[in-house]
């Protein structure tokens, strides 16, 4: 499981012209799921999302977590995070999980993150053509892969 975290001042996702989810200060999370992912990956990544100290304290030092600032979360499914670019110029997505595996894991990730955060999160729609808008704060963008924990 891979995520791209972006610290945002605001972010939203539109599907078919309508806003499906919008947040203010917090994290935009792009989530890529592969066939080998499990609940262990979900739990580990959700804890990383909540505890990653990438928000500024009063001294303008990144030392606060999403929980510390009572921030919001927008999660967007993105299979392209598992693109293979080794051969040629057209990415391959063989490692990206098929919908029958990815959808339940995506839904479980969102439920688990919401439970740990203690408040609702916002999401896109799995597999939809989504238009994502964001105001990246910093900019701060972090890549995390649950298969590279060490």
TrEMBL record:
<dbReference type="GO" id="GO:0000049">
    <property type="term" value="F:tRNA binding"/>
</dbReference>
<dbReference type="GO" id="GO:0005737">
    <property type="term" value="C:cytoplasm"/>
</dbReference>
<dbReference type="GO" id="GO:0106026">
    <property type="term" value="F:Gly-tRNA(Ala) deacylase activity"/>
</dbReference>
<comment type="function">
    <text>An aminoacyl-tRNA editing enzyme that deacylates mischarged D-aminoacyl-tRNAs. Also deacylates mischarged glycyl-tRNA(Ala), protecting cells against glycine mischarging by AlaRS. Acts via tRNA-based rather than protein-based catalysis; rejects L-amino acids rather than detecting D-amino acids in the active site. By recycling D-aminoacyl-tRNA to D-amino acids and free tRNA molecules, this enzyme counteracts the toxicity associated with the formation of D-aminoacyl-tRNA entities in vivo and helps enforce protein L-homochirality.</text>
</comment>
<dbReference type="Pfam" id="PF02580">
    <property type="entry name" value="Tyr_Deacylase"/>
</dbReference>
<dbReference type="GO" id="GO:0051500">
    <property type="term" value="F:D-tyrosyl-tRNA(Tyr) deacylase activity"/>
</dbReference>
<dbReference type="GO" id="GO:0043908">
    <property type="term" value="F:Ser(Gly)-tRNA(Ala) hydrolase activity"/>
</dbReference>
<dbReference type="InterPro" id="IPR003732">
    <property type="entry name" value="Daa-tRNA_deacyls_DTD"/>
</dbReference>
<dbReference type="GO" id="GO:0019478">
    <property type="term" value="P:D-amino acid catabolic process"/>
</dbReference>
<keyword id="KW-0820">tRNA-binding</keyword>
<comment type="subunit">
    <text>Homodimer.</text>
</comment>
<comment type="similarity">
    <text>Belongs to the DTD family.</text>
</comment>
<protein>
    <recommendedName>
        <fullName>D-aminoacyl-tRNA deacylase</fullName>
        <ecNumber>3.1.1.96</ecNumber>
        <ecNumber>3.1.1.-</ecNumber>
    </recommendedName>
</protein>
<dbReference type="InterPro" id="IPR023509">
    <property type="entry name" value="DTD-like_sf"/>
</dbReference>
<feature type="short sequence motif" description="Gly-cisPro motif, important for rejection of L-amino acids">
    <location>
        <begin position="138"/>
        <end position="139"/>
    </location>
</feature>
<keyword id="KW-0694">RNA-binding</keyword>
<keyword id="KW-0378">Hydrolase</keyword>
<keyword id="KW-0963">Cytoplasm</keyword>
């Amino acid at each position: 499981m891979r995520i791209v975290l972006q610290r945002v001042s605001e972010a939203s996702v539109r599907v078919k012209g309508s806003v499906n989810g919008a947040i203010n200060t917090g994290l935009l999370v792009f989530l890529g799921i592969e066939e080998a992912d499990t609940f262990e990956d979900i739990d580990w990544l959700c804890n990383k999302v909540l505890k990653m100290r990438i928000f500024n304290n009063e001294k303008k030092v990144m030392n606060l977590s999403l929980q510390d600032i009572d921030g919001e979360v927008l999660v967007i499914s993105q299979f392209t995070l598992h693109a293979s670019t080794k051969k040629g110029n057209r990415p391959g997505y063989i490692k990206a999980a098929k919908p029958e595996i990815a959808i339940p894991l995506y839904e479980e990730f969102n439920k688990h993150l919401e439970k740990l955060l203690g408040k609702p999160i916002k999401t896109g729609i799995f597999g939809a053509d989504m238009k994502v808008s964001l105001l990246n704060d910093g900019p701060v963008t972090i890549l995390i892969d649950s298969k590279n924990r060490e």
